Batch of 4 targets.
Target 1
Amino acid sequence: MKNQIIKSSIYFLLVLIFGCSQKPEGFIIQGNVAGFKDSTMLYLHNPDLQENIDSAIVVNGKFQFDGFLSEPQRLYVNTVFTNMDEYRYTSFFVENSLIKLKGNYDNFRYCDISGSKSQDIEKKLIKKIKSNDIERDSLTDYFFKNRIDIIPEEHKKIWQQISLLDSLNDIQYIRFIKGNLNSYSAMEKLQWRMSEMPKDTLRMYYEQLIPEFKESANGKLMNVYLNSRIVEIGEKYIDFEAVTLNSEPFKLSDIKKDYILLDFWAAGCGPCRKANTELAKYYDELKDRMEIVSFSLDIKKEWIEKASEKDGIKWINVTDYKGRNSAIAIQYQISGIPCSYLINKERVVIKKYLGFDPEYIDEIKEIVQ
């Protein structure tokens, strides 16, 4: 009897030791939300893959996602988009662990997340910039809801306020990067800003990374950036090869027209789509002297084809299907889209347009004609 008790104790001890030492095979996200109607569909979106990787129905305020990631990264939980008033989303760092999400419909963007060590680090930054983000969201919501009626003076004032808030946040981002460099959250912020800082500064940060983060997805992108020639205003353009939607090879240097407008876009980018439709209105007027080259950062052909047809793209339309990992996008310092470069007949980059503003088309028309 005594031997049996000892054997049983050893067995349960081994189960405890080995059972607790096993790492979870993937992640589980358990959601507990208030204010969402039963049967509301939520999606787990991976921005790197540009697709939803899981979906769940809210039942009694609860839902669950599961999956596997090769490394921690930001994922989004969102409703289907119907209109801005009803669209809800939040984003946070997911890693292979049990993660709990608690939130409500009215303030879903700022859910409470527990169980993710990477998100715990991110919370340090959120605490510093949350009030600025809320004010910025309020300004942008007001602008887009009332943009038809807003007079030029108010338009200018709103965007000055937004610019100030962005500048204040940038200060916090830099402090956060310096204080939390070897983290997936800081690596994300550093990758976002790598085209905005001198290469020497970026290299200094990169050399302080431990191997885990040098080998991360963002670490590899930084390495490509640090070891590539980067386009600059006033300098020669960078030639590249890509493919058209008909799978035909394309080379930028094959274009013989006086001017080139190289436009980086994606099907899921609202301002990009507005820029496409606006360019389509004036393409026939400009095409004798200028060629437009749209370079899509989508990774799936069908997305590009559907958006291109709807937007009326009838000019050169190319991609390399590598998304944010595109060396071409890195060389052209694409940190946000839409982003366009105007290249003259000497093949010097003379203008960069970030974001969409109909006024930049007027400027292009003046230059080209």
Note: The chain has three domains: 14-115, 120-226, 241-368.
Target 2
Amino acid sequence: MKTLTPALAAHLAGEVTTLCTCWKVSRTDGVILGFTEHDQDVVIDGIIYKAATGTTPTAIAASADLAVDNVDVTVVLDDVVITEADLWSGVYDNASVQMLLVNWASPADGSLVLSNGHIGQIRMGGPSATAEVRGLVQAFATNIGDFFSAGCRATLGDVHCRIDLSGLTVAGTVGRITSQRIFSLSGTGPVLEPTLPNRTVVAGRSFTHKIAATAFFDPAGNLLMFTASLGDGTALPSWLAFNATTLTFSGTPPGGVPSLTFSVTASDGAASVSGAFSLTIDPAGTSFSIPPVVAETPGNVRVPAGTAFGFELSPTTFYDADGEGLAYSASLSSGASSPPWFAFGALPSWIAFSAATLGFTGTAPLDGPNDANGVQQINQYILRLQATNGAGAVASCDFLLIATVSGDQGPPAAGYYAGGVVTFTSGANFGIPMEVKDSNGATLTTFLSMPRPLAVGDTFSIYPGCDKTAATCQDTYNNIINFRGEPFVPGIDAAMEYPGAPNG
């Protein structure tokens, strides 16, 4: 039931009315805007409902049943109130809309709420845009819940996926323009591998903690400078030193110091990226068990494919509580949380491991491995380092070995950014995100043309996509434990099969 103020009810009952329709739009970024079809601005409860946008609605219809009542509203893009960039940036997506009937000659008489809803599809057309305003009943037509699917239902980086996109997001600059959909990078800022290793130490006992040199890299090959601070940006405590050349922390934590978070920042002079890790301080070593434990989780390692490489993991990767010495071994892993259908085993023949130095040497092939179906994958391998003490107790940790094409420190393979999102941080397309259709080296192709002209020197940020397969979740992101798909549940074809049924 709709309610009216006495003043507005009296006006509606009169022979002559001065009525207009107004729209109150509450955007997802918190901005509230008002629009009206009247030829002059109308002020209601302190909000100015502007007439300059040339707002024109279709007929407003409502019913007592559960039929969805939608209205289309056309507005003129004026680059002041409603801008094309805002529409493309998504701030109007799912914005709430309240439609009001008001006496423009006396707005103080009150208003009649005609409907409430949300903005749905927006269609761009020349100097104007048409927005679909969906009524509240639209929610009843929306599917709620998950469906079985072979592919993952999560979106890369969301609460279900749990991948931290901040470590995968890189900065770039447009260097060459082929079209409004195809452009190439002139260089990118430094990149952080997904995480920095955490560390557990004992109060009163000196320690060193080395960040792997491969934890940060610059796709453009620029020299990186490193700084370190507490997680809140303040200076390191006096008992802790940081060597920016070797990326090594060293010190002796005093008793009574709480666990701390530290930040390491890499800068190429124009752009920077930061990574954080936690230092857990055990007051008396009571948290260590007799079996060995992982003290430093190795970071991802990048090596050039087709060229001999060599690297060593930190000798303090494991902590031996009883001090009897550890024996080390290495293998090819499917990930610490992998289900049983992902096999793992001996190292590939091109990798050699030294238990004495925790060193790996070899020459990665130029072609990636094949999956179970013979399809070539990107050059990434999950390696497992295992430590065993004299009593046979075991601890292990996994890290990713990424073989980049020789001479190319960019994405590990063609298509790496396919399905990802590029967002421009300068230029005419500032703030506008666009999904990436494909990538090939330094060249990006977006699904749709950028709405405004691209220019050499425009900057942007970009993160990779995911094809939602179990193989990519495991091999690329080592995240199979959060995979939200059912690739092995039989589908309708399997359910309808019968003995002797022909294939195809």
Note: The chain is about 5% helix and 40% strand.
Target 3
Amino acid sequence: MKKNSVLFLLLLFSFCISSLSQTDPNQQTTNEKYRFNFIMPLGYAPEPYGVDAVISVGAFDNYQVSTNNGFAETDIAVNPRDPLNFVASDNRVTGFSGTPWVYYTTNGGVTWSNTSISSNQGDPVFCADSLGNFYLAVLSSGIRLLKSTNKGVSWTNLGNIVSNANADKEWIAADQTAGPYQNHVYMAYVNFATGASVDFHRSTNNGASWSFVGNMGTGTPNPGPDIAVGPGGRVYLAWYNGGTVVRVSTDGGATFNAQVQASFHSTPGTINGSGRYVLKTDIRVNGMPHIAVDMSATSRRGYIYNVYATNPPGPDGADIFCTRSTDGGVTWSSGSPVRVNDDATFTDQWMCDVSVDLQGRVWAMWWDSRNDDPGNLMTETYGAVSTDGGLTFQNFKISNQNFNPAAVKIFQAANHYYLGDYQGIAGRTITMPFYTGQNNTLQDFTAYLPDYGISFSKTIDSINPGSTSVVRMRNPVMGPYAGTVTYTTSVSPSPARVH
């Protein structure tokens, strides 16, 4: 009887896991572990930053920050002491074909400036501490750390956190709380010298020195860790291994609790002849999680959100989903993930990120092909916002020009092309997505969230004396925009006065 009871419990557990899973049972899988290193193309011309070109196509404006093609993998961070101060870059930060640049803005993206840093091997990721210091981690025969104490204007090379030629896909975060672990800085990366392990390091002195905490776990094909810090200095470390795995530290990253499954999901796309998960025309993709914590003063302060792309059961090859934890990462809504993209197509949605602003609004961004149905090739940057703690999301289009991924993809090897492995979004009062690919380029773009647009029923009109013409205007919004919009009008040439 005891043996039968054990068997029944095992079968019940297996059924529960299967019913909660977003793993497509028909998707081919692989046990191969592989790095997401980037192989540089053979020559983009060096270029200055700071174009600040306003791209007005349709109702909304986008802002082009660069002048020449970059190398994807865009990231952005905001200063907690100055919500109009952002720093950003992409993989051109390597300096492969010119000076390695970082750009920064101190007026909320109205204008951007650039500054140079030392050459490296890419994978740029940013964070900021409570003092307003920015940190930038890059690959450089290991993980190198740079620091800016003047809003991104200049950067100091602090040397390598770790020296390891087998390092890949690092992530960093800093404690912005006023608690006992204030300004601790945390870094996790994938160590292929130890079987694609997630290795965690921490600094308790503003990045001056670092200590190795331990190997937190492994993942296949590439765990791609992410880190976030919540109220009380709780550290959340997430990575991919059959879904999102999370471990929590309550002592400033010194020790971590046992891992918890925040979601059960497969990698988006399908496996091609090179053994990689791909979408579109052999462009590599991943199911790496992206997490963010609500640090607002609202009732949802401390909620953690886990956003990811997956190949769900059925004909859709890639969708965006969100799970959340409302109890400090102890339990997750892995059994009821929320689909973030609201399209009714089977087209691809992938390459996502998430952030939470000071009003507790959850912002997500991703690439989306819903407007090329059934072609499923032309792609736009989409976003979504949740004002109810991740239970529902309102979708909107961010980019005002689409692009063809097949036209801008970067060759890596046979059946293996690259458009980056992540992109970024950040904000406190205003939120700024930072992305590439628009208008069949690898330029860097941004936009304001929330924002309002303006469009007219007629672009030009004429009127005869004594007659009437009506031109209708509309104000679409991206996100829950609230504010006063003031309009001015002029008529040219001025009509003759009748006496």
Note: The first strand starts at residue 49 and ends at 56.
Target 4
Amino acid sequence: MSRKKKIIIIASMGAVLLIIALAALLLLGRENKDGFLDNLFSGGFSLPGGKDIDLEDDDGAVTGGAESRSALFMVSDGPVAAATISGDGDGVLFYRSDVGHLYKTALTGGAAERVSNLTIPSTINAEWSTEKETAMVTFIEENRALRYFVLHYVGTTTEGVVLPKETYAATLSPNGENIAYAVAVGDGASVVIASSSGKEQKNVLFSELADIELSWITDDLLFLKTRSSAFAPSILWSLSVSGKTQTLLTPKEGLGVLFSPDGGRFLYSETLRGGRDLALYVANNNDEYLKLPATTLSEKCVWSNKQTGVVFCAVPQKLSGLPLPDSWWSGEVSFIDDLWRIDTETGEATMVWDQNDFDMVKMFLSPEEDYLFFVNKKDSTLWAVRLAS
């Protein structure tokens, strides 16, 4: 046999052995859940063919979940438009703005299950009824116009109505039975109350002021505010379902408002003209006001349901010299926050947590208030921090 033929035979045998070895490795990899292939494709977001979102870090460990021992954990690694505690109190509901789906996960994070068969692209916000069976969802159409969708969740079935195109503000009653929305009429606005099915419409207020924002805090009382800016004053007033109004705050620049769950008191933040000297106050419906020892925006706070008069607020470590809140809303500036517990009756403030690099918004508490959830404004991811008992 020639030397050339021997080389060919040896090379052929080597190739066969290599193929056999690779096949064996692949078979072993399928049996080994922590093998190379599984690690290569682990984590990530399951597209509409699947049901789960796996929240894993670079080492393949689940972020959050029942085994998490960290004071801080991620709930969703994708952008979240809005989140809340589920109706049964044992989980978190959240809308992913990138895919338009509603998901539920445990209070301690982990895999999230899709709970609605409806896809709403470009979701930017949602407001839920107390029982979480109805939601007012805000989304953006292709022409960049805001639209409002009232949704009723029945198991995995979702039914709903889209509000008129002329609607520029809308809110949902706490019991989910009614809605209120504002439509432009000339240079002013008309406020309409209707059932959450869109029927039984009734005009309850015409205002010469445009750009009204609506909040429905108790079943029979709404609150209206003109749109805020560092360069224009806003006012706040209440509106009963029968149409009676009462002014609560005279014009203030940079006005932000956050009502307590019972509507009996509210936080408000304001600035001097031009967005300077940010300050936070608490007020009640008896015209009593107290300046609080925290320099932050009211929308970076959440009221406690278990501790009367207590709020948790994300307080920026350093404020920008640019006008607030406009420069923060636009994303021109962002903050690094510390988390504080504030007793609005005494003014006492205690730092809860300061080990983070988050710009905290859309905060809410678990039923036992052992977890505080928030969206990081920098990337819209959803997080939770465990509160000391």
Note: The helical segments are 3-31, 36-41, 326-329.
